[in-house]
Amino acid sequence: MAILGQPGVNDNLKYLGDSELLYGDINGILEPPMLAGDDTLAVEGNYNALYGEGNAMIEFTQGGKDYLRATGDSNALFGDASQMFDNSLGGDDTLLARGRQNFLRGDANEMLDNAQGGNDILYAEGQNNILMGDSQQMSSQSRGGNDALNSLGNVNRLYGDTYQMDLGTEGGDDTLVGKGDSNSLFGDANQMYGSAQGGQDTLTIKGNINGVYGDAESITGLAQGDQDVLRVEGDLNNLYGDAKSMTEMARGRGDRLVARGNNNFLYGDAREMFDSTKSGSDILEVTGSYNLLYGDTTSIYGSIQTGNDSLTSTGSFNSSYGDGETMSDNTLGGDDTLIATGDYNFLYGDTSEMFDGVQGGNNVLSVEGNNSFLYGNALFMHDSAKGGNDALTLKGNNNTVSGDAASFYDSALGGNDTLTVQGDFNLVYGDAGHLREGVISGSNDSLTAKGNGNFLYGDAFQMGYAVSGGDDTLTSKGNDNVLYGDGQNLYVTARGGNDILTAKGNSNILYGDAIGIYGTASGGDDTLTVEGDSNFVYGDAVAMSEIARGGNDILTGGLGNDHLFGDAKSMSSGTRGGDDLLIGGDGNDTLVGSVRGTGELDTLEGGAGRDLFVLGDGTVAFYVGKREADYALNTDFSPSDDIIQLFGEVSQYSLVTVGSDTYINYYEQSNSKDLIGIIQGVTNLDINQSYFQFVA
User: Fold this and answer.
1) CA distance 169 to 215
2) What is the secondary structure of 464-511 as a DSSP string?
3) Mean of the per-residue pLDDT values for the chain?
4) Torsions phi, psi of 629, nearest 5?
5) Contacts of 290 (CB under 8 A, 6+ apart)
6) Residues whose CB falls within 8 Å of the CB of residue 659, separated by 6 or more in sequence, listed in order
7) Across-strand partners of 679?
8) b/e for 349-378, b at 16 or more Cβ within 10 A?
9) Could you give the C-alpha distances from 6 to 22, 30, 38, 46, in angstroms and in order?
């Protein structure tokens, strides 16, 4: 028994009961020259089936504008027919269901042979309902219409076009809206393969624990997603710009994902990508806390191609990955942009871990907030991974910024990065926190900080083994900042780069290379400049031990009272400093060319003010051991203003005039004369006068 309308007539069919069939036009095939009417079909009951036209449509027939309504459970609504073939065209139908486990298909159960769906409206209120904008299955060049799907309730599934798309099918530009929990929204289908093409869909849902797929759950073969917009408001939702899984040569497109809430997961393309899949250039935006953003996918390897993505988060404890969570197999990272506003956020320009020859992208990272962590490329880089040339910008306090990663090892190499910080008490690393065994060198980075109490490391916190530092540029403006040309410690055979350090402000500390240089490590040829008062400047380090070597450095003081050490404040017996130039500038400065001086030729220029030139301390005289081959050259000593500090007693020294200069000789033993200083352009000095100060 079936309830039938008349072909071509606008029928109004109603039924109250269960397990009935309603056909708006015919219980059979709608074929030329038959016409479809604009029918209204309504049921109240369960297990009923409603067809806007008939069982099948063929040969360019066109469905009417039908209205189907069901109240009850387990009803099936087909806007046009069960099957559509041969260029048949679905009508623009409206399907409404209220209840549970209802099935709504905007056009048919199956579409093939160039059939085209209409622009349908589907609405379901209840739970466990399934809405498909066009049909259950699309194949053989069929095309979906531009449908609107809306559900209110939980555990509903909305498919913009169909469940399965293959063989050149094309999805429509659909709009899906849901409200409730544990729902699933698919912009086009559950599965796309062959050469299926997704439409440009808009998916919006308000609720929790929902899954939102821009195109499908899986895309494989040559299938391709399109540019979709996904929006959610709620918690614990999953957003996939294209699909949950992409394999073979599937392609993602540039999608936009927007989430407002907490603990949401956003994947620009897919959760899993395999083979030779290609990502789109996606836009991801979240407002809330504890959200995870992946510009492309979780794991990137093989021939997977990443996109140039944009990730923006507003809130706290969010984690953003420009490409994915891990990258391997010589893959290339995209040129991504990551922006975060809030506290305790984590930004990874490419991924958490890079290895096996991976090349990071040239990323842009920006944070406004506190206690956040920014890594230009990854958390860990190893096995010949290489960072990109990244730009990191930060405004806030107590943040950690690394141009490339937290840690390098096994021949990893950083990019030439630009790091800019505004705020207080931030940690800034040009390359990484640690450059470990097997790393060849740091890169040439630029670090700039405006604020107080910041720590800038040109390369890393720790550098060991055969690592060489890059030629970095560090600039700070503010007070109590600490600048390390390379790292806090250089050990084994590490070598510092040729760095440029500049600080404007007071009470800043500059280390041309590190605090400590140990083993056979050596400092680079650095240029250090301060403008301000009470700054401490070390050409190489605070302490040098074993057989460490210093570089040939240039140190320039500012307007205030600065302390300049050409090499280090403490040097053990086997160490040797470089040939340094110290310029005190204005103010009452303290200049120490070297605390050993063996084999060194340092130049000291005090500048204006009452300066102290230190050629010895309370335990030893400096520049002893190479006779006339090592000494400090003082180019502007003023007896009326300046003081020269010497070790020991007057009886251990003699002054000798040589041309227009005065030589200072030290006698370690009565018959052992050693030149330790030359006072340029000044004669007639008296070793007993107060401009010579002795300490012992």
Assistant:
1) 13
2) -TT-B----EEEEESSS-EEESS-SEE-TT-B----EEEEESSS-EEE
3) 96
4) -95, -5
5) 262, 263, 317, 318
6) none
7) 634, 662
8) bbbbbbbeebbbbbbbbbbbbbebbbbbbb
9) 12, 12, 11, 24
Report the alpha-carbon distance of residue 548 to residue 495 in Å, rounded: 10
Radius of gyration, alpha carbons of the chain: 38
User: In the 3-class helix/strand/coil scheme, how is 242-297 assigned residue by residue?
Assistant: CCCEECCCCECCCCEEEEECCCCEEECCCCEECCCCECCCCEEEEECCCCEEECCC
What single letter denotes the amino acid at residue 506?
N
> In the numeric block, which tokens belong to residue 321?
């990955």
Give the up-direction half-sphere exposure of residue 498: CA atoms within 13 A in the CB hemisphere. 4
Partner residues linked to 477 by β-bridges: 450, 504
Beta-ladder partners of 676: none
**Residues 551 and 597 placed together within one structural domain of the fold:** yes
DSSP 611-665: -EEESB-SS-BSS-SSGGG-EEEESS--TTT-EEEEES-GGGEEEEEETTEEEEE
Q: Give yes or no: residues 7 and 130 share one domain.
A: yes
How many independent structural domains does the chain possess?
A: 3
Question: Do 602 and 657 fall within a single domain?
Answer: no
Going from the C-alpha of 594 to that of each of 518, 570, 576, 581, the distances in angstroms are 17, 9, 9, 11
For residue 639, count other CB atoms closer than 10 A to its CB.
16
Task: Tell me, yes or no, whether 622 and 610 share the same domain.
Answer: no
Query: In angstroms, rounded to a whole number, what is the distance separating the alpha carbons of residues 627 and 666?
Result: 10
Among residues 614, 637, 655, the one where a domain terminates is: 614
Separation of alpha carbons 224 and 227, rounded Å: 10
Scan for tokens 């944009």, then name that residue. Answer: 310
pLDDT of residue 175 exceeding 90, the answer is yes
Whether 631 is in a domain gets the answer yes
Structural domain boundaries enclosing 132: 1-145
Whether 138 and 111 have beta carbons less than 8 Å apart is answered as yes
Residues 6+ away with beta carbon under 8 Å from 471 = 444, 497, 498, 499, 524
- Dump pLDDT digits (tens) for 390-427: 999 999 999 999 999 999 888 899 999 999 999 999 99
What's the whole-model pTM score?
A: 0.94
Contacts of 478 (CB under 8 A, 6+ apart): 424, 449, 450, 451, 452, 453, 454, 504, 505, 508
Whose tokens are 């050469």? That residue is 195
Q: For the chain, how many residues are written?
A: 696
For residue 442 the two structure tokens come to 């740091």
- Residues 626 and 587 reside in one and the same domain: no
Task: Tell me the CA distances in angstroms from 288 to 138, 178, 211, 291, 341, one per residue in order.
Answer: 39, 20, 18, 7, 10
Q: What is the pLDDT of residues 125-169, one digit of tens each?
A: 999 999 999 999 999 899 999 999 999 999 999 999 999 999 899
Q: Is residue 286 part of a domain?
A: no
> Quick one: which of 215, 242, 346, 360 has its CA closest to 292?
346
Residues 670 and 563 placed together within one structural domain of the fold:
no
Query: Residues 657, 536: one domain?
Result: no
